[in-house]
Amino acid sequence: RRPNRRQAGGRGGAKGRGRGKKPASDDEDEDEEDEAPRGRRGANRKKPAKKRGGDDEDESEDEPPKRKRGGAANKKKGGKAQDSDDDDSDVGKGKKGKKGGGRKGKKEEEEEETKGKKGDGKGKGKDKGKDKDDDKDKKKKKKKGDSSNSSEEEESMSEGEMARLMEEVEEKKKLIANIRNKPWRMQRRLKHLKEAQEFVDKFEGALGKGKGRKWYAYKVMMTKKWIKFQRDFENFRTACIPWERKIKEVESHFGSSVASYFIFLRWMYGMNLVLFGFTFGLVVIPEVLMGLPYGSVPRKTVPRAEQDTAQDYSVLMDFNGYCKYSVLFYGYYNNQRTIGVLKFRLPLSYLMVGIGTFGYSLMLVIRTMAKNADVGGGDGEDSDFTFAWKMFTSWDYLIGNAETADNKYASITTSFKESIVDEQENQKDENIHLRRFLRVLANFLITCSLGGSGYLIYFVVKRSQEFATRDDLSWYEKNEMEIVMSLLGLVCPPLFETIAELEDYHPRIALKWQLGRIFALFLGNLYTFLFALFDEVNTKLEEEQAIKNASIWAMKEYYANYSRLMNDSEATPPPMDPADVIRGPCWETAVGIEFVKLTVSDIQVSYLTILIGDFARAVIVRFLNYCWCWDLEAGFPSYGEFDISGNVLGLVFNQGMIWMGAFYAPGLVGINVLRLLSSMYYQCWAVMATNVPHERVFKASKSNNFYMGLLLLVLFLSLLPVVYTIMTLPPSFDCGPFSGKDKMFDVVMETIDLDLPAFMGTLFSYAANPGLIIPAVLLMVLAIYYLNSVSEAYQNSNMELKKKMKMARDEEKNRRNNADTTNQVMKDLEDLLPNRSLIPPDPPEPEKPPEPEPKPTKTKPGSAGKGVNLQKDVALASPNPNARAPVSRPPGPRGPGPGRGRGRGPPPR
Amino acid sequence: MGNKQTIFTDEQLDAYQVSLFSFSRLHGRYHELAPHLVPMDYTNEPDCKLPLALIVNMPELKENPFRNRIVESFSEDGMGNLSFNEFVDMFSVLSEMAPRELKAIYAFKIYDFNVDNYLCKEDLEKTLNKLTKEELTPEEVELVCEKTIEEADLDGDHKLSFADFENMISRAPDFLR
Fold first, then answer.
1. Closest to A903 (Cβ–Cβ): which among B12, B19, B78?
2. Chain A environment of B105 (Cβ under 8 Å)
3. Strand partners for A339
4. A66, A90, A143, B24: which could form a disulfide with A147 (CB 3.0–4.6 Å)?
5. Nearest CA to A707 among A259, A50, A121?
6. Separation between Cα atoms, residue A642 and residue A608, nearest integer Å
7. Sequence-distant (≥ 6) Cβ neighbours of residue B96 within 8 angstroms
8. Which residues fall in a coiled-coil region (chain B) (predicted)?
9. Which of A138-147, A453-462, A491-500 is modeled with the greatest confidence?
10. Chain B environment of A182 (Cβ under 8 Å)
11. One fold for both B10-94 and B100-171?
């Protein structure tokens, strides 16, 4: 019996309460379902009576409404309490118990006592303030059956009280919390606040928070602190985003399109930093720290023939000499399987980092794209309130600094201009045939110039191969290829831009076309360059083969002689200085050097372009303008605009170079990080100092996904040659971490064979079985197909929903219009009524704050936040203004009273 | 003033503090604005008001394009003279803790330049010119105002009532001030 009872007692305060009201004959076996409602009713019935005792003292004016509210709330609460689990009621009771012993809830106590006198055991238990369950048990032990039942009644009764009181206290507290949400004048607030607070003070203590008060206060304080901490942390995090202020500054003056370039640059920097970390942490630094030192083996030594010039500046600038035999390039790395005390597997790590670079980049790009797609949702936001929001919410009220304010003005103006451009574009109607013709023409011209430049590059590459066999080269002949490529990069984009004028697209779309075209141009460049490189590699490979054979033959010869002469089969290597050893051409290092050279020249060219094309121009325009025949600033040269497409593509292709070259020149990533870092500052400065905003400032598409798409394409393209070389070309026999192997990836096989347990090897061989791979690929294709179709379906439904929303909005508008007209009719009708005819014209005019007024009247009864919410609901949900009218009108007549309406005086202007 | 505020007793301070956050320094600030006008001692409810010109020069408001409007809409006489209570009022509404509904109400009042309870085109033009320092051409201003009204006006009367305004602003992502 006992366990049963206990359980029942613990379960649900409502049940206990119910019993309290009813004759004690209630048995516990009754359903809770039955019991609870009755109990609730009982509680309600009882409350007013009990309430009176406490209430009339402290709250004088608000009483009646509050009681009503309390009742309602109590009803609610009853339901709630029933659901709520044992813990709640336990806690409540426990608290109450404590309180009984405690301080000032005298009234409460008295009430409880009077009511609870019948239950003898209860008072004791309470006063002791022990844990409730214990009490109950004790009680139960003392008197079985009914008496214990009654004792429970008492407790539960007062629990009903508790709940109600707590409810009210909560309400008051809510009022206190929300008081600053009310559009009241301060005095009024203070008054209400005072009342509420007094109430809370009185009863909160009574509710057992007296003792628990400290804890409660502590909790409140902690929540506050926590919120503040979160906010601070958020601020801190934004402050941690590098260059955020710089970029915002640029954005405010040049629009989001220019800023999007810098954001892209920053993203790129982050990615490269990670790549840099991988490459240097896992490849370069281990080799420097644990590998053989410089000069110990032939691959780490400058050959004797080159030693004289190895330190010349021009040689170093070509990345020959000491540079070539340094840790920057592939050839320097040794093919020892493990190095150092840590037994670091450098060759394996080299390969893994090479592949991991691509893997990481791919993952990152795709993830960013997906995230952007999630956020951005395409070009231009199609929200309903573009202008309205800009108008009313764009000012940042926290600005207190003149310079920031200026920036903000600029940015608001810019963003308005962006939206205006979009809007004008929407309104434009045009001669479609002419436009089409012009667009076709433009595309034709651009294709021609693309083809031309492609051929030019191919030609130059061929010529440079001829030059490679000769020694007597002039500076121009040596650098012809770079020069031509840079020139093309300089000339073609403006050409395309001029041609694109014909097309007359919206600037944002024009930018995309421009990007696509220049991309094609660079792509041509890149690929002709790559093919030329492969030619070079092939010749080098042949050359190497010859040298390899020769040196092997020489070695054999040497060993044969050695063992014959010394009669000793132990062969020691020939005592030769590492600088004198004959070595192959090491095509990997050659490729690496090529990429590094290209990157460096690219950096030089782009920096010089900025310096000359923008800065010098700006200086000339600015200062010669004082003594020139025409207005330079407004006229011909004027200031430069920031070239978004060129810069973005420069960045993208530069990254492609890095990806391709990083495998053969681990140092390249480091160079690139430096480049990105410096160009962030340099370009930010250059933009702010020398450029002017675009004529038509346009809004960038919210996501950078077009840029990302280009990047992904470049990544894929640069992946191909690298993977090809890794998988098919034999590595050089005497340089690099893979020397001596047939293929580079043999190092993986080797690791599997030697380092992993045998079963792993078999596992891998199974996994590599075509029978397994083909189904896997098939599965993936199917998955892609499925996901694709799902996403399409979602897109469709998305569009559908958007359409519906728009329709709904239009409809609403219409209905409101109609409602207004009918309303007008109604008003006229009303005017005809004798007693109304005088009122209507009056109220709307003087009643200046329609919102602030109704709210007080409405909310005064108490329910703090609810009043506001209610108001809002009315405003938002009700589709016709009639619902609103009664709300705002009643206070109208009252409004003109002297003290109430604010700002009644003459309008300020 | 209807209140029995006799002094800044602890209780009173408490009350103020609950209704806003940074009360502690507010009186200091208020006093600072015009030391000769505002008594240090607020025990007997002095009836003094600060003129708009003084308040507008507070660093918080100095750079705000709507500073005059802000102060005006908080002052009881509509001329921008603020009593201490109104002053406190203003800061509590402008504080970041104030809820959106409240801010919307006051924002509406602020943007309502001619105090006719509607945002009409002139209001919008003034707002826009203040926001952009009159950098936009008249045609652009015209376009923007037209579009704004078209977007937000639900009842087709070519001006924005508070209902329109609240409907619009409650959906704005960055209406936090």
1. B78
2. 183, 849, 851-852
3. A344
4. A143
5. A259
6. 15
7. B176, B177
8. none
9. A491-500
10. 102
11. yes
Predicted local distance difference test score (pLDDT) of residue A784: 95
Burial group, residue A564, by CB count within 10 angstroms (0-12, 13-18, 19+) = exposed
For residues A113 and A154, give the distance between their C-alpha atoms in angstroms, rounded to a whole number. Answer: 9
Across the interface, whether the CB atoms of B117 and A820 are under 8 A apart is answered no
To the nearest 10°, report the CA torsion of A547, A553, A557, A562.
70
Partner residue opposite B18 with nearest CB, options A179, A399, A820: A179
| Radius of gyration over every alpha carbon of chain A, rounded to an integer in angstroms | 41
Cβ-based contacts of B163 with chain A (< 8 Å) = 875, 881, 884
pLDDT digits (tens, 9 = 90+) for A611-650: 988 888 888 888 888 887 777 777 777 788 888 888 888 8
Q: Which residues pair with A640 in a beta bridge?
A: A691
Q: Which of A387, A812, A852 sits opposite B148 (nearest CB)?
A: A387
What's the 3-state SS for A272-307?
Answer: HHHHHHHHHHHHHHHHHHHCCCCCCCHHHCCCHHHC
- How far apart are the two ends of chain B, measured CA to CA in Å? 30
- Residue A827: pLDDT band by 50, 70, 90 thresholds? low
B168 to A388: CB separation less than 8 angstroms, yes or no: yes
- Range B99-105 average pLDDT: 76
Q: Count the Cβ atoms, other than its own, within 10 Å of residue A556.
A: 10
Which residue in chain A is spatially nearest to B94 when comparing CA positions? A397
Residues A300 and A322: their CA atoms lie apart, in Å, by: 9
C-alpha triplet B91, B99, A391: angle, nearest 5°: 85
Per-residue DSSP letter, B153 = -
> Taking a contact as any Cβ pair under 8 Å apart, which residues of chain A between 214 and 243 contact chain B?
none
Q: Retrieve residue A9's tokens.
A: 């007692």
- Contact predicate A16/A155, CB 8 Å: yes
Element (H, E) at A880: none
The candidate with the shortest Cα–Cα distance to A736, out of A381, A287, A320, is A287
Query: What is the C-alpha separation between B146 and A372, in angstroms, rounded?
Result: 32
Given CATH 1.10.155.10, say whether it is the number of domain B10-94: no
Binding-face residues of A in 133-192 toward B, CB within 8 A: 176, 178-183, 185-191
Phi first, then psi: give them for residue A112, nearest 5 degrees.
Answer: -60, -40
Does A885 touch chain B if contact means CB atoms closer than 8 Å?
Answer: no
Per-residue pLDDT at A680: 93
Residue-level pLDDT at A551: 80
Residue A646 exposure: Cα atoms within 13 Å on the Cβ side = 20
Write out the H or E segment, with its range, that includes residue B50.
strand B49-50
ipTM exceeds 0.85:
no
CA atoms within 13 A on the CB side of B131: 29
Per-domain residue ranges for chain B?
10-94, 100-171
Residue of A nearest to B110 (CA): A392
Residue A387 sits at the chain B interface (C-beta within 8 Å): yes
User: If you count them, how many residues does chain B have?
Assistant: 177
Burial group, residue A539, by CB count within 10 angstroms (0-12, 13-18, 19+): middle
Chain-centre distance of CA A115, in angstroms? 61
C-alpha A588/C-alpha A607 separation (Å) is 29
The DSSP secondary-structure symbol of A344 reads B
- Give the C-alpha separation, A752 to A431, whole Å: 68
| Contact A881/B at CB under 8 A | yes
Contact A579, A307 (CB under 8 A): yes
Looking at per-residue pLDDT, the higher value among A816 and A718 belongs to: A718
CA distance A339 to A288: 11
Q: Two tokens at A411?
A: 């940015």
B140/A420 CB distance under 8 A: yes
Q: Are A850 and B117 a contacting pair at CB < 8 A?
A: yes
